[in-house]
Amino acid sequence: MSSITDLSTAPREATISGAPGSQSNAPVSSLALTSAAEKDSLLPDLLALAKIRLTAMVVITTAVGFILASPDTIHWFALLATALGTWMLAGSAAALNQWLEIIPDSRMNRTRARPLPTGRLLPSTALLFAALTLIAGAILLLWGANPLTALLGLANLIIYAFIYTPLKRISSLNTLVGAICGAIPPMMGCTAATGTPGPPAYILAALLFVWQIPHFLSLAWLYRDDYARAGFRMLPIIDSTGRLTCRMIVLYSLLLIPVSLAACLFDIAGGWYGPISIFLGLAMVFLAADMARNRTRQAARRVFLASVAYLPLLLILMVAGSSTSR
Fold this sequence. Notes:
Blueprint: H1 28-40, H2 42-49, H3 52-69, H4 76-100, H5 102-106, H6 115-118, H7 123-144, H8 147-167, H9 174-194, H10 199-222, H11 224-230, H12 235-238, H13 243-265, H14 273-294, H15 297-325
Helix pairs in contact: 3-4, 3-9, 3-10, 3-15, 4-7, 4-8, 4-9, 7-8, 8-9, 9-10, 10-13, 10-15, 13-14, 14-15
């Protein structure tokens, strides 16, 4: 990817008055245009602000935690309230993340078309959306689940928006902190079902944490030029040769095998889950090793796409295997 040479092609920063680090004296005409654009595509832009596809996976992992932790019958009302409350808190965290990163997002090719950098949404609208979804999500979790689940959801939002987000510009350790955010939602599902964390909560949290490292590092390798333009300290940017990045991807791909098999050890999943989880893990290791050998964009893309397929397949197997192990 080419570096930025003409900022006039990026969304105008004058239309994002009120954003962190932006100028507060934007022309009235720019703000009027932004407000008009906001009305034209409000719902699609709010869904983009909530990162609907990303938060959908968060809801799925929460639901899997609820199902696996449920001792006998599944309380569908509690599951629905937990899933919806989790989605709202995740959407709030995503909105806060984008509000805090309007300027960096405007410098990246993959994010410059988001609603805030383009001016389709005002920063004040994003903050209002984040506040409303935060309050609604917390109330739903308190009412439909329990205080512990609501506390975990709020803690996850704080970590994502106010620790992980600023850390991206400071240290490559941000990836590990971000992985914690992905590990908490399945724990929320477990605590919503039983009131306390148990083996399913810890196993799912460990699985999500480990899975996110090869998933995100391969993505960061693909977009390392973009991240560099935004001033983010991702490992593939600091690690110019790619050796450490690839070693981390191989290591965490290897860890996926024993962590996924822990579900069998604690009798959470049975049937074909064990052997298929080994096969899926070995496939991840093979592709990670190929990336370590070649260090090409094609190899990184294969690792990323494999990780996208790996997680839902494993979760489906886990839920299916849980019925046979009970």
